[in-house]
Amino acid sequence: MTTQRTPQSVEGTDSIKTQEPLRRTEQVLPEPQQAIDPGSYLIDLATGTWRVSPDLYKIFGIDETSLRTLDEWVELLHPSSQEQCIEYRSQEVSEKTLIDYQCRIVRVNDGEERWVQGLEHIEYDDRRNPVRHLGRIQDITERKRTEEQRLLMQATIECLSEAIFWIDPAARFTYVNDAACRLLGYSREELLAQSVSDIDPSISVESWPAHWAELKQRGSITCESAHRRKNGSVLQTETTVNYLQVAGKEYSCAIMRDITERKQAEKRTQRSEAFLRQVIDINPNLVFVKDREGRFTLVNKAVAGVYGTTVENLIGKTDATFNMNHDEVEQFRRVDLKVMDTMQEHVISEEKITDAAGQVRWLQTVKRPIEGEDERVNHVLGVATDITERKLADSRLRRTQYAIDHATDCIFVIAQDGHFLDVNESACRRLGYTKEELLTKSVMDIDPNFPQATWNTFWEEFKNTKFLRLETRHRGKSGETYPVEVVANYVLHEGEELDYAFVRDITERKQAEAALQAFQDQIRQMQKMEAIGELAGGIAHDFNNILTAILGNAQLATTKVASDHPVQPNLMRILEASDRASRLVHQILTFSHQQTLPRTVMALQPVVNEALDLLRATIPANVELTLTFDAATPQVLADATQIHQVLMNLCTNAWHALNNQSGKVSVSLAPVRLNQPLHSLFATLPPGHYACLSVRDTGCGMDADTISRIFEPFYTTKPVGQGTGLGLSLVHGIVRGHEGAIVVDSYPGRGTTISVYFPAAEARAYEGEPVKVSPAETQGRIRHLLYLDDEAMLVELVRAWFEPRGYRVTGCMLAAEALDAVRANPDGFDVVVTDYNMPGMSGLQVAHALAQIRANLPVVLVSGHLSPTAQAASLASNIKAMVSKTIMWEQLDGVINRLLNTPQA
Does the pTM of the predicted model rise above 0.85? Predict the structure, then answer.
């Protein structure tokens, strides 16, 4: 194994001076030896044989008998070392040489690469040819590795940007790296000639021992200080000094960093932070940063003010420390985590926060995620605006706007030229426009009474008075016009003349006024009719007593005069005239609502058909009489005879209104449902279901004055002798008795329609109970009749009428006299007949008093007008029958006979 003569290793440069252990082999290699030292070898070039020590086999990891030739040994080298070995052999020269080399081998047994160092002596023959190689090889793998690590460490230290100083206990520099030289501006030699106090003004020669003692105690010190460069400038540094012991010697290793820029950056940062602090503190909004645990890492004074603390006290704390409202804190926490987890900005238009005083404030908050240096989002930035005052103002404004929009009055803000600047919802709803549509319009568009010229005149007056109240009419989008009351207020707002107008729809008020006027007219008419009715009723009542006497005496006279007596015709004429007079009295009493008949639930169509059949036989052929009937017409509670009279009178008047001309009389019967009260001339019907009987003619019609009087008794527009004026008054009385109403629609030359409304029947009317007749306790003796009336003539007439028929009659003109007679002899009377209208004590009261004396004494009540009140009261007394005076002589005898001869049920 030959190499070049130069002291070069196979794969690198190494100082021979560092290889002293190998060089000592020169003492054992000059002459061939029979025995080989450990790690040594002998190559005989002449024979090509080897002699190798056993240790060399171990270094190469081979068996002692496995290799013998030079080439086989060369193959054990690393491929890179094999190439170098061939190169060295070719460079051998014919002279003695000592070769020092290093190479890599590959151990056979484990394949491990190792470093070896050899020292080889080459012997030459006389011809200067190499004949023998003697060498020794040593495994330097571990030393090689240590050297490599040292070189790497040294290279690393030299490459560092930090300045490295090795310092001995005397404060002298024993080693410095290139960075230290560059940092301080010295060469290495210059710097190694300095001491610590030369570059650090803060450490003097006198203070160094104390520094060294502290370093030994602490082991490591990091500090910031100012160092002086060669040029005299000062730089800021951060130095970490470590105390070390190496090979029994004490050192300190100082690592120095130039922090001048950092310090400047820190100052800039501090100035920026101070500026930022001023900015966020002067900001009235709440500015804060929280970490993932909800702790404040940055807040401004606004946040501290809400929570009643300081900025410093808030840092590191959470909302829960200062806010006792758990729900609010949890809501803040949920939103914060959502912003960080989703990495998306979140805007909260309104959220509540309870301040230190326990008051609720409203915030509008924007929260944004903050990404850290590790690219993770662990903080959230929040900026919240306190909108409490605005919210309260908005709330007040909304309440005001709500009140304005829901005000019953329409509100307009009007410019000087009449255009609308603002309107409320009521105005939009009433006029039928949207707000956008209405704001494009002006007063002239909705008020027909205010064209442009009128508006200009109005405005001049308005400016002077500052306030006006007027009534006008507005026109809606649909074209509907309606009356309004306007209250206009002149306002000068920011130099602009405005009209704040409050408009009230007075349709209902006008309708109410009209209804009130109609009602007052109705009341006056009703009062007039009531007065006339009372007068007519009073006259009819008194006349009825006289007529009853005439009829009674005439009938009594006919029984006493022979049928062929010359006076009989005169008596018959008296009876005929009295009968006509009786019917007239009946009509008057019906008009005055003093005559009633029992009513039953009935359909109107049969009565109407019957009446029209009768009318068709009497009206002229040139008059067309028609009927329209709706099958849904409800039944009514009515008296058929009176309904018949109503229709006959109405149709007769309609026929007469044609004035002997051809025309039409149309009758209709239909159901009507009233959703609103119906106001007629004499009555007001409540809402409900009704049957409407209408008679329409194509005649001459009537004016308003005539309509107002047509129902007065004895009022007629017919010539003298052609009408009594009682027809429509009879209709009026019957309809009132049926709780109905009459509506008249007429105009001169356009005919007349009279509609009669009857309430729909809900149940069958009470028809009374069968009359309970007293037993004939007086059989076998003359029946005793007690008659009570304040008219002496009628008392005598009753005595004259009933005594010939086998009755004993006691007549009284005073109620007390009659009651005394019964008390004196309670069983002495069989029946009592009493007038209803008695002075002092009515016939009804007399009947009640008699019931106290003798409960089973039957009483018959006689009256010129049997009112519903009297009939209803009689059902609860001992009154067994009621008889009208107009037919008293026809019925009274039969009624008394029935009472006295019918056994009690």
Answer: no
